[in-house]
Amino acid sequence: MDFLGQNEILVQSTLTNFLLAMSLLVCLRVGVFSFGGLACFGIGAYFTAVASIHWGWGAFSSISMAMLISMALGALLAPIVRGLTGLAMGMATIAFTLIAGVAARNGGELTGGAEGLFGIPIMVGTGTALLIATAMTILLALSERGRMGRMIEAVRVDNELSLSTGISVQTVRFVAFVVSGAIGALGGGLAASFRSIVTPLDLGFGPVILALTMLIVGGARSWLGALIGAVFFTWLPTVLTSVGEWQGVVYGVVVAAAAIWVPGGAVGVATDLRRRLAVKRRVRNAIPVKPKKAMVS
Amino acid sequence: MSQGSEITAVPAFHGPGGTAGSTPETTSMGVLRAVSLCIHFGGVKAVDQVSFQVEAGCLFGVLGPNGSGKSTLLAAITRLQRPTSGRIYLHGEDITKLPPNKLARRGVGRTFQTPRLVPTMDVKANVALAADRRSRPLWDRPTKSGKGRVDDVHAAMTRAGIADAADLFPEEISYGNRRRVEIARALAHDPSLLLLDEPTAGMNRQERDEISELLDSLRKQGLTQVLVEHDVPMMVELCDVILAMVQGQVVAVGNPKEVIANETVRKAYLGRKRK
Q: Which among A67, A140, B205, B259 would be 20 to 30 A from A222, CA to CA?
């Protein structure tokens, strides 16, 4: 409890960063390189700020509405970018984020212009946020298992294969955009409430780089990767206080090393290791796999 | 008139149990029917005015040299490639514009030219991918417990002779066994039509024989199959009907031995005239 009290801001940042990373992860898991979740993070933060400051809404109503708006935006964005893949998809969705940033900067009194909005009431406690993040994690973890997990993995790996097994790739992607929007808005709403401030920088390149680095280091295939990345990059600056201004260099080296040598992130390494050990065990036990004759009924 | 419709002269061959593959003039609907199918890429006519019909229980072979349009034809049947013109019918229903995933749900299983498996999933999960989607809409679905699905997957793996490798990953099994996993996955659909794109490509003689045996056993079980292959002796031995393609056009269709003996086929495929 003492630890939580002393590090409450860091814990809160970890939770919101985790949700930010998860919003990207949802799309990456189905092979879509989309930054739509980031735009929704900013939209969630701004909507919560505007609703609570200008209209006097509470936490539940403002964050829920922000999530609904973001889900609707995700649903609109998905068909627009459906034909795009890889970098083109990344560029199109990052443009969406930057457009939202420009709108926030030019929103006048409503959005606070270039300075943003200050004095957002603290409406959500750390415990509640922890519960919300845990619930989201459980849902995401469940989606990685069984039938849905197989479907998501197949869509990520091979679209034509997925189609030939009856999976509607477009529907899976559409749902990913919508869910990504909801999680992003949830993270943004909580972040605005925790920090009491929201600025156009929340819709800039900073969060884009942060979210990407979290997934590069943690891994982009599982919720665990998002969690590892969020913990790592939220707590890294406190660990690196001793290196002073070299912090940026250490940060850069970690990200570059992860991208070059550990492309699957920490979770990818653990998964590969576990599989290799299983293979070694099987080889040691020497189970020959000889095809049997086809069964004729 | 196209070259394809001019050259086709071999009569329909009736396979075992009254099954047959035939030209589309046949009155019955058949399992699969293509009518004047064209797939053009700009000026390149990958498939040009191709028509054929596959009857129930028939093992229908599509033969042709590289670049003759066999795989493109298969891609069009599975709707992964949009035809430029023409119609495709499955059990009499026009499927020309049906999305590929819906076609798979209607019982069309397929394998690819190179085995396409999800490398991060073990064999049984790869096969389960198809069994998962076998279901009808929620309101029209017979109760299917998780155990029932496991049984379906196991049955498909057993039919393809790969049940022993259920827990292995694709990288751990031989190329031939990966082919079997693909076939098992296609069978997990409980298909009424199985499309096989060069299932023995890159295999040694023993593996080829094993796959031939497997396809023959599936035929004996009454499964309708369309087999795209290069292996002429295998095609002649296995298929009830062969359709020969050259440069996107049908040059012959009918009894395998007669098709192989066809002068145009020999010239185009084997590079020499019949003596």
A: A67
CB proximity list for A53: less than 8 A, separation 6 or greater: A117, A119, A120, A121
> Which one of A148, A155, A164, A283 would you mutate to disrupt binding with B, by most B Cβ within 10 Å of its Cβ?
A164
CB burial string B165-174: b at 16+ within 10 A, e below: bbebbbebbe
pTM score over 0.95: no
Residue B38: name the closest of B30, B50, B28, B26 by CA: B50
Q: What is the DSSP string of A138-161?
A: HHHHHHTSHHHHHHHHHHHH-HHH
Which residue among A163, A282, A287 places its CB closest to the CB of B80?
A: A163
Judge whether A284 is closer than 8 Å to chain B, CB to CB. Answer: no
In angstroms, rounded to a whole number, what is the distance separating the alpha carbons of residues A155 and B83?
24
- Using the beta-carbon criterion (under 8 Å), do A158 and B116 form an inter-chain contact? yes
The rounded distance, in Å, linking the Cα atoms of A188 and A97 is 13
Which element (helix H / strand E) includes A47? helix A36-53
Backbone angles phi, psi at A192, to 5 degrees: -60, -40
Instruction: State how far Cα B246 lies from the chain centre.
Output: 18
Nearest-angstrom CA–CA distance, B98 and A16: 43
Q: Which residues contact residue B264 at a Cβ distance below 8 angstroms, ignoring those fewer than 6 apart?
A: B7, B244, B246, B251, B252
How many angstroms separate the CA atoms of B162 and B160, rounded?
6
Judged against a pLDDT cut of 70, whether residue A251 lies above it is answered with yes
Residues A193, A50: Cα–Cα separation, whole Å: 11
Positions of E strands within chain B: 13-14, 20-22, 32-41, 44-54, 59-63, 85-90, 93-94, 108-110, 193-197, 224-229, 241-246, 249-254
Residue A275's pLDDT band (cuts 50, 70, 90): confident
Distance from the B11 Cα atom to the nearest Cα atom in chain A, whole angstroms: 31
Q: Is the pLDDT of residue B16 over 50?
A: no
Specify the DSSP element, H or E, that contains A80. Answer: helix A59-80
Q: Closest Cα to residue A11, out of A125, A119, A121?
A: A125
For residue B227, which phi and psi values (nearest 5 degrees)?
-115, 120
Element (H, E) at A198: strand A197-198
Do B269 and B20 meet the contact criterion of CB atoms below 8 Å apart?
A: no
| Cα–Cα separations (whole angstroms), residue A133 to A70, A138, B18 | 18, 9, 63
pLDDT digits (tens, 9 = 90+) for B44-83: 889 999 999 999 999 999 998 888 899 899 999 998 999 9
